[in-house]
């Protein structure tokens, strides 16, 4: 989750509770036009960046660095999950299934299923 808080107190981590909430990136605007970033993560989550806990950054860098950090946080959490399968492995599995399912059919009949208007000619 990405949280913006502009009150003077520290954000309470348990405000958004979920079993799937592995990482929270909290943005605190400072009085001098800079922003403090606080990153809360569960202990089993590995390291990611480019933003690190308690970094102070300029407004011009805020959106891109928060976006990249959130993408890397998501990737770190997904890759660590035991049930996660990388996309290319999933694609290969589906291709193998399609090949096995259609290996007995001719190329013409397969193309005819996708392009029925061509099969009648």
Mean pLDDT: 86
Shape: elongated
Query: What is the distance, rounded to the nearest whole angstrom, between the alpha carbons of the first and last residues?
Result: 55 Å
Strand content: 15-25%
Unreliable segments of 5+ consecutive residues = none
* Rg, Å, rounded: 24 Å
Biggest sheet features: 4 strands, mixed
The share of residues in helices is 40-55%
The count of helical stretches stands at: 4
Structural class: alpha+beta
Strand order of the largest sheet: 1-2-3-4
What does this protein structure show overall?
By secondary structure, the protein is α+β, with helices and mostly antiparallel strands. Helix content is 41%, strand content 17%. It has helices at 59-80, 87-102, 107-114, 116-119; strands at residues 2-4, 23-29, 35-41, 55-57. The protein has a four-stranded mixed beta sheet with strand order 1-2-3-4, covered by helices on one side.
Tell me briefly what this model is.
With 121 residues, the protein is α+β, with helices and mostly antiparallel strands. It has helices spanning 59-80, 87-102, 107-114, 116-119, and strands at residues 2-4, 23-29, 35-41, 55-57.
Describe how the helices and strands are arranged:
Blueprint: E1 2-4, E2 23-29, E3 35-41, E4 55-57, H1 59-80, H2 87-102, H3 107-114, H4 116-119
Parallel strand pairs: 1-2
Antiparallel strand pairs: 2-3, 3-4
Summary tags:
alpha+beta, 4 strands, elongated, 41% helix, 121 residues, 4-stranded mixed β-sheet
């Amino acid at each position: 989750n990405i949280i913006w808080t502009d009150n003077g107190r520290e954000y309470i981590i348990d405000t958004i509770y979920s079993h799937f909430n592995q990482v929270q990136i909290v943005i605190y605007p400072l009085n001098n036009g800079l922003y403090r970033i606080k990153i809360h993560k569960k202990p089993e989550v590995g390291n990611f960046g480019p933003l690190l806990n308690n970094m102070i950054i300029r407004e011009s860098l805020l959106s891109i660095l928060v976006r990249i950090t959130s993408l890397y946080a998501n990737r770190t959490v997904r890759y660590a999950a035991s049930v996660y399968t990388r996309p290319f492995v999933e694609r290969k599995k589906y291709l193998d299934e399609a090949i096995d399912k259609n290996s007995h059919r001719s190329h013409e009949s397969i193309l005819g299923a996708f392009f029925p208007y061509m099969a009648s000619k």
